[in-house]
């Protein structure tokens, strides 16, 4: 199942069926809860943010596991230009009953302007012991070595930058295009 | 090593009768604060500082996040207690009671081999202090904070409260109002102290809170390693420990501050620790939290000068009825600053271990870097592990990377070790020591041996 929830007003999605569930959104602000209330559910959440001018995004996500043997994986990528800002708070909570859960939360931010800002708080709250959980967050500018390599091959600076940005967000765009991951 | 575990256990479960000479009644009011100051014959600036802080303490609320602190009854705590009259110059002069307590944790042994100076805190005041001659010759000042206020008021005035003002939080305000004891260190320019300096802290009386105040100043191009080791006897009513530690690392200085915290399981350990690193200076916190009921401690480093470096290595072990809420803060103000946080925690027997951190790279801190790694192990299905890392970045040239993982001990690893003839307990203890190894290696030998034993002992309780 693939669902683009960019335009949804809904703030809570309850997953009651096993199998694969893919959620996708772009430049969305607000709080979204994914309540996983089924065994053997595999939930994938993808978010893409491209900030320009004075865009300000405020996002909160919850991956709430209540049943055992399920998975949820969240990936949020941002590219922030001009004076844009991204404020993020993500939480994975795994209740005592939800043994053998695998959950991850990844937030990768690319700041390409001196005046852009990122604030991110990826949280884990884990009660059972047989789980595999991880979260990671990175903030950086474009990789200088990669940029240098492309330019040394005759690509103009702006084209090289665009290529690298495309490469960075492709992982998520692909999900949107193929409606699968 | 396992054979020594039992003996070690005995060593750490002692409690000696009180030998208090001077004791103020329970509870806190303006008069108590004044009495402490009068008793210590302090100058008016310190008395005023205490009274101002007391006012802030009354106004401040308890933090509305983290562990539950509502059980602390501030009226049931004794805020000042003096263990012996004055200070003793040598080991022989110490009262037998105190000597016995120290011998149980092995101070004389340490002194002979490793220490370049001991400043041992029994109850609330430093009672024993010896500085090797070469330190004195180098111009190093290593004394208790009360002495420093009297003997070196100019240095103290310049730095005291500058990094942690009483307005910072309720417990910093409380400490500033009623502080007693603690360590003062000043290292002059270009002096390197090769051996680690250390102080022992003790709480040995029921309902008695300890509020020591530590101030370390490392002048240009100097270096120092300070160790704070805590072991406390077991008592049944809640006790409060609210220390404040301020460290100033001036240009190109290097400071490492190691804490081994093993308070008994009824103590609220609410400590504010902060360091400021100037140009090219390095500050390292090594923080091991094993005991206490509730620990809230987030050692911070303000990277204020260009190319300053900060490092935090922390271990926490949360067992039955324990909540270890620990972590750290790295705040980058200047360009080309680098910081690293490594946190390893274990939750077992219903304990809860939380990592709470902040990495903040300000706009001017261009080309700065931070790497944070938090690893957690949960040993059973009644414990809990959390991570709350806050990350802010305000420029594009800096890089922050954060990683965290939580899991249980890999069954394959246990199986492999058992197939080589180890018992399940030993296999588990070995894996856990391996998990902590990269941090424990940073600690001087005699402490790391103690810590390995302590972890083995804790594990034995849980696997048993």
Topology:
The complex is a heterodimer of chains A (181) and B (464).
Chain A: E1 2-4, E2 12-15, E3 19-26, E4 30-36, E5 41-51, E6 56-65, E7 71-80, E8 85-94, E9 102-111, E10 117-126, E11 132-140, H1 144-152, H2 157-178
Parallel strand pairs in A: 1-3, 2-4, 3-5, 4-6, 5-7, 6-8, 7-9, 8-10, 9-11
Helix pairs in contact in A: 1-2
Chain B: H1 5-11, E1 22-23, H2 30-39, H3 44-59, E2 81-82, H4 96-105, H5 107-113, E3 117-122, E4 125-131, H6 133-138, E5 141-144, H7 145-151, H8 153-159, H9 170-178, E6 183-187, E7 197-201, E8 213-218, E9 223-231, E10 239-241, E11 244-249, E12 254-262, E13 267-277, E14 282-289, E15 294-297, E16 300-303, E17 309-318, E18 323-332, E19 338-347, E20 352-361, E21 369-378, E22 384-393, E23 399-407, H10 411-419, H11 424-440, H12 445-463
Parallel strand pairs in B: 3-7, 6-8, 7-9, 8-11, 9-12, 10-13, 11-13, 12-14, 13-15, 13-16, 14-17, 15-18, 16-18, 17-19, 18-20, 19-21, 20-22, 21-23
Antiparallel strand pairs in B: 1-2, 3-4, 5-6
Helix pairs in contact in B: 1-12, 2-3, 3-9, 10-11, 11-12
């Amino acid at each position: 199942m693939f669902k683009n929830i960019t335009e949804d007003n809904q703030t809570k999605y309850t997953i009651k069926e096993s199998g694969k569930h893919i959620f996708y959104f772009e430049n969305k602000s607000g709080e979204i809860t994914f309540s996983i209330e089924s065994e053997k559910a595999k939930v994938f959440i993808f978010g893409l943010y491209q900030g320009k001018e004075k865009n300000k995004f405020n996002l909160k996500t919850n991956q709430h596991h209540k049943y055992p043997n399920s998975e949820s994986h969240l990936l949020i990528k941002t590219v922030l230009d001009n004076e844009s800002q991204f404020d993020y708070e993500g939480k994975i909570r795994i209740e005592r009953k939800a043994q053998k859960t695998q959950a991850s939360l990844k937030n990768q931010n690319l700041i390409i302007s001196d005046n852009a800002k990122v604030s991110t708080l990826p949280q884990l709250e884990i009660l059972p012991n047989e789980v595999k959980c991880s979260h990671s967050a990175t903030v950086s500018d474009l990789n200088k070595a990669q940029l240098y390599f492309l330019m040394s091959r005759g690509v103009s600076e702006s084209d090289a930058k665009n290529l690298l940005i495309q490469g960075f967000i492709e992982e998520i765009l692909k999900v949107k295009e193929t409606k699968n991951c | 090593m396992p054979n020594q575990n039992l003996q070690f256990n005995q060593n750490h479960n002692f409690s000696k009768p009180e030998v208090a000479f001077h004791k103020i009644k329970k509870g806190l009011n303006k008069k108590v604060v004044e009495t402490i100051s009068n008793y210590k014959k302090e100058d008016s600036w310190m008395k005023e500082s205490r009274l101002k802080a007391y006012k802030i303490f009354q106004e401040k609320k308890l933090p509305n996040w983290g562990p539950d602190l509502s059980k602390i009854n501030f009226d049931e705590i004794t805020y000042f207690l003096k263990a012996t009259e004055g200070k003793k110059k040598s080991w022989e002069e110490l009262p037998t009671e105190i000597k016995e307590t120290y011998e149980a944790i092995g101070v004389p042994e340490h002194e002979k081999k490793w220490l370049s100076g001991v400043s041992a805190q029994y109850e609330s005041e430093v009672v024993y202090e010896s500085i090797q001659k070469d330190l004195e010759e180098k111009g190093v000042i290593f004394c208790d904070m009360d002495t420093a206020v009297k003997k070196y008021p100019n240095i103290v005035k310049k730095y005291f409260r500058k990094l942690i003002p009483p307005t910072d939080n309720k417990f910093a305000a409380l400490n500033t109002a009623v502080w007693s004891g603690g360590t003062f260190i000043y290292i002059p320019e270009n002096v390197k102290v090769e051996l680690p300096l250390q102080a022992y802290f003790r709480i040995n009386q029921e309902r008695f809170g300890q509020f020591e105040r530590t101030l370390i100043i490392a002048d240009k191009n100097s270096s120092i390693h300070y160790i704070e080791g805590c072991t406390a006897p077991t008592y049944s009513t809640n006790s409060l420990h609210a220390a404040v530690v301020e460290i100033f690392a001036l240009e190109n200085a290097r400071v490492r501050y190691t804490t081994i915290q093993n308070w008994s399981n009824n103590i609220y350990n609410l400590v504010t620790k902060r360091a400021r690193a100037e140009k090219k200076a390095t500050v390292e916190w090594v923080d091991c939290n094993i005991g206490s009921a509730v620990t809230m401690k987030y050692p911070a480093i303000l990277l204020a000068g260009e190319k300053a470096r900060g490092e935090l290595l922390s271990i926490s072990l949360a067992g039955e009825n324990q909540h270890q809420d620990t972590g750290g803060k790295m705040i980058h103000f200047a360009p080309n600053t680098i910081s690293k946080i490594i946190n390893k925690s274990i939750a077992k027997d219903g304990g809860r271990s939380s990592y709470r951190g902040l990495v903040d790279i300000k706009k001017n801190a261009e080309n700065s870097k931070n790497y944070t790694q938090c690893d957690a192990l949960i040993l059973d299905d009644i414990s809990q592990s959390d991570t709350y890392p806050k990350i802010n970045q305000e420029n594009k040239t800096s890089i922050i990377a954060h990683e965290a993982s939580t899991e249980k001990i890999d069954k394959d690893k246990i199986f492999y070790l058992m197939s080589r003839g180890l018992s399940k307990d030993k296999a588990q203890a070995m894996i856990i020591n391996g998990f902590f190894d990269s941090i424990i290696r940073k600690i001087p030998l005699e402490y790391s041996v103690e810590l390995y034993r302590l972890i083995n002992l804790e594990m034995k309780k849980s696997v048993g």
